[in-house]
Amino acid sequence: MNTFLTVILDGLIQASWLFVVALGLTLVFGVLKILNIAHGGFYALGAYLAATAVTMATAHKVPPGLGFILMLVSVALIAAAIGLLMERGLIKLFYGRDEVVLLLVTYAVFLIFEDATKLIWGVNPIYANQPYELFGNAEFAGLFYVGYDLMLIPLSAAIGFAVWFGLNRTTTGKIVTAVIHNAEMSASMGVKINRVYALAFAFGVMLAALAGGLTAPKISVQPGLSSEIIILSFAIVVIGGLGSVEGAAVGAILVGLARAASVHLLPQAELFMIYLIMAAVLMFRPEGLFRRETARRI
């Protein structure tokens, strides 16, 4: 029984931050129809920025709670600004080109980010675990967990709900949703498509960096973070369905539970289990569990 509960809790903890990463990736694809390989680089950037912010806050004796909030705000704002500059200065130049070209462009950005983080922060691990210690420990059904890990579950759920609410209950969100469903029709109705593209890309980058910032206190921040996360986030959006918020949530839970179960029961099959789920979904629902309905051309 304890093993079962451990797998569930560990799976939900992993799913929480994976969901935030995948949410940004699926949003960018839904609006811009771009598979953003650089997404993992933005996750790593967020982790490095968070580690730097925590180090600076500690050096200036900022209260831990305030330092944690300032860390998240600074990571979100800096990442959104970088995403906006990247979309306006680079990605925009390739709209209308073949999808493979855009894929290669984002891959080039991914490689640039990999080397840039090494040049700026070096290759040695950086530790910024002050926020991790802030929430203490908690007991759940006889199992002891770090409070920070458990906090990630409701926090990611709140982020997901905020994104869902923004897309479905606000004017700006409904415009973005309209572009996701049919960009050409939206443009003919007077929607400024380029602004929507810029907003969606910047917001997607912000979510990736925010996920990196949330995981930074619980890991050693070092080169190579981006490679693993891009594989996992792609698996999530493929399972859930590209462009679907609900799909990102379900995909993250499935991947998180699969990883947790593998770690506790069969460590050698950790990646295999994820690929097995992805293959099964692609076999029976090639467009993902929450595929969007599209008009059929006849």
List keywords for this structure.
74% helix, transport, single chain, globular, mainly alpha, Branched-chain amino acid ABC transporter permease, BCAA_transport_permease, 298 residues, two-stranded antiparallel ribbon, transmembrane transporter activity, ABC transporter involved in vitamin B12 uptake, BtuC, transmembrane
What does this protein look like?
The protein has a two-stranded antiparallel ribbon with strand order 1-2. α1 runs antiparallel to α9, α1 (2-32) crosses α10 (225-240) and α2 crosses α10. It has a single domain (1-284), classed as ABC transporter involved in vitamin B12 uptake, BtuC. With 298 residues, the protein is mainly alpha-helical. It has helices at 2-32, 39-59, 64-89, 99-121, 130-134, 147-169, 171-181, 183-188, 193-215, 225-240, 245-265, 270-284; strands spanning 137-140, 143-146. β1 (137-140) and β2 form a beta hairpin.
Annotate the secondary structure layout.
Blueprint: H1 2-32, H2 39-59, H3 64-89, H4 99-121, H5 130-134, E1 137-140, E2 143-146, H6 147-169, H7 171-181, H8 183-188, H9 193-215, H10 225-240, H11 245-265, H12 270-284
Antiparallel strand pairs: 1-2
- Tally the structural domains: 1
Radius of gyration (Å): 19 Å
Overall CATH class = Mainly Alpha
Fraction of residues in β-strands:
under 5%
How are the strands of the largest sheet arranged? 1-2
Work out the helix count: 12
CATH architecture assignment name: Orthogonal Bundle
CATH topology: ABC transporter involved in vitamin B12 uptake, BtuC
What's the main sheet like?
2 strands, antiparallel
Low-confidence stretches: none
Helix share of residues? Answer: over 70%
Question: What series of H and E elements makes up the topology?
Answer: HHHHHEEHHHHHHH
Shape: globular
- SS-based class: mainly alpha
N-end to C-end Cα span: 54 Å
User: How many β-strand runs?
Assistant: 2
Mean pLDDT score: 90
Keywords: Amino-acid transport, Cell membrane, Membrane, Transmembrane, Transmembrane helix, Transport
Subcellular location: Cell membrane
GO cellular component, one term: plasma membrane
Family: Belongs to the binding-protein-dependent transport system permease family. LivHM subfamily.
